[in-house]
Amino acid sequence: MTISTTVHAAALNAATTVDLLLAQGPSDGPVGPEFGKASPIGLFILVVLGVAVLALGWAFYRRFTRFRRRAMFAEAHGIDLFDEAAVDKAMEEAGVFDRRRKPFL
C-alpha cells in the first residue's frame, strides 16, 4: 500500500465514523415503556376546550342572529339601527320583540 492510499482509507474511515455519530439521536432522553403515553387529564382538557369552543360558537350564533333580525327590521322600517330604544319600541308595537332572556356572553 502506498501512503496516499493509507491516508485516503483513514480519512474515509474517520468520515464514516463522524457521519454515524451525527446520524444518531441523543440516547440520554426519556425512554421506557411509559414514555409517550398520554394521561387521562390530557383527554379531559381536550374535551373541556372542545365544549368551550362549541359553547362560544353557539352563543355567537345566537347574538348574531338577533342582531341580524333587528338590523333587517330597522332597515325595513327606516329606523336607525343604533337607536336601541326606538328599535325595541317599534318591534314591540309590531309584535316581533324577542322577550327571551338575554345571554350572558
UniProtKB/TrEMBL annotation:
Source organism (scientific name): Corynebacterium guangdongense
This protein's UniProt keywords: Membrane, Transmembrane, Transmembrane helix
Membrane-spanning segments: 41-61
Name of the protein: LPXTG-motif cell wall anchor domain-containing protein
Superkingdom of the source species: Bacteria
